[in-house]
Every structure is written in C-alpha cells, then in structure tokens.
Amino acid sequence: MNIALIAHDKKKDDLVRFAVAYQPLFEKHRLFATGTTGLRIMEATGLDIHRFQSGPLGGDQEVGAMIAKNKMDAIFFFRDPLTSQPHEPDVSALVRLCDVYSIPLATNMGTAELLIRGIERGDLDWRKLSGGSGDEK
User: CB neighbours of 112 closer than 8 A, spacing ≥ 6?
Assistant: First the structure.
C-alpha cells in the first residue's frame, strides 16, 4: 500500500510516536510524507519515506495529486483543529479528494488506531480486489 503521513506543527510529535509504535507495520508499505514530518519520522524510525515539499509549500497538493492519479491508499493526517493554517485551502482540498476517491483518512489518534488495525488485518486491500494500484514494497 501507498501510505501518506502528514501532521500540522503541533501534532508532529504525536505522529512521530505513532510511527514509532507501528514501525514494523509501516516497514511493509511505501511511505510518503510532507517535508518536516517525513524527516522527523525518518530520524525517529529509520523508515524509508519519500518526502514531498512541506504542506504550505505544496506538499499537501503533491499528496492530492497522487490521490487523483489513484496512487494513494491511506492517509494519516494529524490535523491541529485549534490553530489557523495559512494553507487551509490546500488542506481542505486534500480532505475533499479523500472523500471523492474514497481514500481512508485518519485525522486524529483515535481514527489512526482504527485505520492502522484495518491495514494490519488486510481489510484495506480493496485495490488488489478491484485491480487498482496495490503498490506494496
């Protein structure tokens, strides 16, 4: 599976801890992340991650392009709902694309735990069943 990891500044520590906790599972998939988030996860875990630009510099849009091309299978986007984001239109567009293309999106620790368990069990291998990308390492 192709999995994106994104976090707003105040949520980066949470996503790094999540990636550390589920490192053995994430190692089995192709990982993508926005700038600093990807760097922080790589430093903490040693995971191989393709890094896009930071979110405000177009990273969210790069992830969105992968969704639109049917090349993203799940997204962990730990959002900070209490801080105004200068690139909020990009964030909204990314969330909208997830809805349009039925891409599972976890925006907080609770949904992330549910999504990761589904990935772990293989419940989200719907692309393989439908002949989609199914890109795994």
Answer: 18, 76, 78, 106
pLDDT by residue, tens only, the chain of 137 residues:
999 999 999 999 999 999 999 999 999 999 999 999 999 999 999 999 999 998 888 889 999 999 999 999 999 999 998 888 877 888 899 999 999 999 999 999 999 999 999 999 988 766 555 555 445 44
pTM of the model: 0.89
Looking at 9, 13, 14, 60, which residue is catalytic?
60
Residue 60 annotated among the catalytic residues of the structure: yes
CB 62 within 8 A of CB 52: yes
The b/e string for 84-116 (b: 16+ C-beta within 10 A; e otherwise) is ebebeebbeebbebbeeeebbbbbeeeebeebb
Q: Phi, psi (5° rounding) for residue 76?
A: -110, 105
Retrieve residue 88's tokens: 């909020």
